[in-house]
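Subject: complex prediction, re-run

Hi both,

The earlier run crashed halfway through, so I resubmitted it with identical inputs.
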Amino acid sequence: MKTTYPALDVSVTLNDGRRMPQLGLGVYQSEPGPAARQAVKWALEAGYRHIDTAKRYDNESDVGEALRESGLPRESVFVTTKLWNDDQGYEPALKAFEASRKRLGLEYVDLYLLHWPVPGKRLDSWSALRTLQREGRVRSIGVSNFLERHLSELIEDSGVVPAVNQVEFSPFLHQKGLLEFCRSRGIVLESYGPLTQGLRLSHPAVADTAARLGRTPAQVMLRWAVQHGIVVIPKSVRRERIEENSRLFDFSIPPADMRRLDGLDEGLHTEWDPKDVP
Ligand code: NAD
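This time it finished cleanly. Structure:
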């Protein structure tokens, strides 16, 4: 199947041969209903061709609706959703997927992720994702919030390497070891919280770089991740910010500034931290 992403056509290739746009719109905490729908529509108008939702966000049906209203061909937009923790296990996962797919109103989902490495259940859930992929209901399968040890266990048990690991990643949570591990196994790292939910946008190192490059702090944070080969899914429901966050592919951060940003790690988690998950 030929897939094209007309406006923001920068993509990465997954280990299953499919392509994934390097920029997507995140919709966590985008209020279900008109606000979430409008954000997705603005993003699609701005050229985004990738939307990241989850059962947990309660706005899958808004994403599906906005997609249909945009009139864009289904195959031109990459849609991710996730299996919530309460639904983990083989049979519950199959059921939960079907419910997500119906809410989205889509025939297939581009990427389905285990939202969290739920102990005692994640291997059975993964097996369900493989079934869904074999049946063509999901194109690519992956995980989220997995650390090296969770990934190793999954790969060893199933012999199948996830296409994607979606984790929190920013200059302030620079998980270098995890990035290298993913790279060495052919797993694409996808960053959530790429803007630290706004917490570090005024950090002097970010602000200085932005001022020197004539860009905004948000663009610098996102471009930093893009230059590391990472997929980014910044969230906003404001049109001007959605557009601002998409202008990442017409400039680059010079090596010295990249090194400076590389050194800002402070282990900042804005959401949850899987470090204690056995
Ligand atoms: P984010 O880092 O994308 O921050 C979003 C916030 O940053 C916005 O609410 C707004 O306050 C601010 N912002 C956005 N654009 C801005 C701009 N141009 N200028 C100034 N401020 C701006 O954080 P996030 O929403 O937590 O993460 C992005 C996406 O990642 C989510 O929407 C969701 O799709 C996904 N996510 C996944 C998980 C997971 O466990 N897998 C967890 C959290 C988020």
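The two ends are 39 Å apart (CA to CA).

- K.
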